[in-house]
Amino acid sequence: MAAPQRDLTQTLLSMVCIGALIVAAFWIVRPFIAATIWATTIVVVTWPLMLRIESRLWKSRWLAITAMLVILLVLFLVPLMLLVGTIVSNADEIAGELRSVVAFRMPAPPSWLVGLPMIGARLGSAWQDVAAAGVEGLWARVAPYAGSVTAWIVARAGGVGYLSLQYLLTLILAAFIYAHGERAALTAKRLGRRLGGKDGEDLVHLAGQATRAVAIGVGVTAVIQSILGGIGLAIAGVPFALLLTAALFVLCIAQIGMLVVLVPVVIWVYWTGHPWQGTFLLVWSLVASLLDTVLRPMLVRRSADIPLLLIFVGVIGGLVAFGLLGIVVGPVVLAVAYTVLTTWMKHEPAPARPPR
Questions:
Q1: Strand runs labelled E in the chain
Q2: Which residues have CB under 8 Å from 216's CB, separation 6+?
Q3: CB-based contact 189:87 (threshold 8 Å)
Q4: Using CA atoms, how far apart are residues 126 and 128, in angstroms rounded to an integer?
Q5: How many CB atoms lie within 10 A of CB 273?
Q6: Where are the alpha helices (DSSP H) in 90-180?
Q7: Is 166 left (phi over 0), alpha (psi -120 to 50) or beta?
Q8: What distance lies between CA 156 and its chain's CA centroid?
Q9: Listed residue (13, 339, 1) closest to 196, CA to CA
Q10: Which of 326, 325, 309, 328 is CA-nearest to residue 317?
């Protein structure tokens, strides 16, 4: 009996309808994608903690969810309040620093700079030009770029409210995922099995491990490094240590490193005539900045067997491609792709039987 032929028009229309349905569904949920990814990441990382809290709160899932939401809300509000309080309490000092910058006059170029071979004369001439122009002349040179910088600052300031709303939405979604975590994990595994069999289910499990590894390895390392950097700044007597600590945390999360902030601060400490504090801060900064080379691999390896290079490339590439969300998405995508490739390479095809 011949198999019935498929209607080509019906097949094409079915594919178009399914594609349109997928696009429409994506367009509708697009505003919630970022918050959903962050909420899923938070739940995956903190799920063991939530279970411990639940066991201590009379096995009540909703009490545990409430406790987790309070903890997450405090983690967001406390740093924000500390930063705002630091800026308000040091408003006069900040204004004084700005006035001192306006009144600053550069000294003559040092002799060692002018004496450098090949480039010393050019550097000395450029130094003298900047010193002669003063702050007013320097501002005249950078004024054409002020418009774009101002627009960037206004855009970031306007995004604070949006960020707060996104965080609240993330907490709401996290509460729902906490409440139905087991069912969500089972659904994800069923989807993986439906798409790729046992290997697909393993990939879902790996995605969870990679998410936890990235969050713990990158996040915990950034927290420890920024705290150590802030302690060093406070001991050295550097002003606005809290604001600089927040900058250190952001740079560590973005995998840029602490030295971008700490090296200019060390130079400033030496410049202001405090050699002992500068030497201490220099040594402390080097030790704290090199800590990630030991701590991050240890934390990542505890959660997932992922090459450290994949984590680094995923964080940087994801940050460039997707913004802050890419810090999580980038390493997870690379980890899953890496596992697919290694699994495919391990499953060698069976040798063909010779014809009889």
A1: none
A2: 45, 299, 300, 302, 303
A3: no
A4: 5
A5: 8
A6: 91-102, 111-114, 120-142, 146-179
A7: alpha
A8: 17
A9: 339
A10: 326
Contacts of 123 (CB under 8 A, 6+ apart): 109, 113, 114, 116
Q: What is the pLDDT along the chain (356 residues), one digit of tens a residue?
A: 444 555 788 888 889 999 999 999 989 988 888 888 888 888 988 999 999 999 999 889 999 999 999 998 887 777 666 666 666 666 666 666 656 655 556 666 767 666 777 777 787 777 677 666 655 555 555 555 545 544 544 444 444 556 667 778 888 999 999 999 889 889 888 988 888 787 778 778 877 877 787 778 878 888 899 899 999 999 998 887 877 888 888 788 767 788 888 988 888 888 777 888 888 998 999 999 888 888 877 787 776 667 777 777 887 788 777 776 677 778 777 877 777 777 677 766 556 565 55
Round to whole Å and give the CA distance between 58 and 135.
65
* Max CA distance (Å), the chain: 98
Token duo for residue 150: 């101002």
173 within 8 A of 35, measured Cβ to Cβ: yes
Structure tokens given for 77: 């509000």
| Cβ neighbours of 159 (radius 10 Å) | 11
The amino acid at 348: E
Residue with tokens 């774009």: 148
Q: At what angle do helices 259-271 and 221-235 cross, to 10 degrees?
A: 0
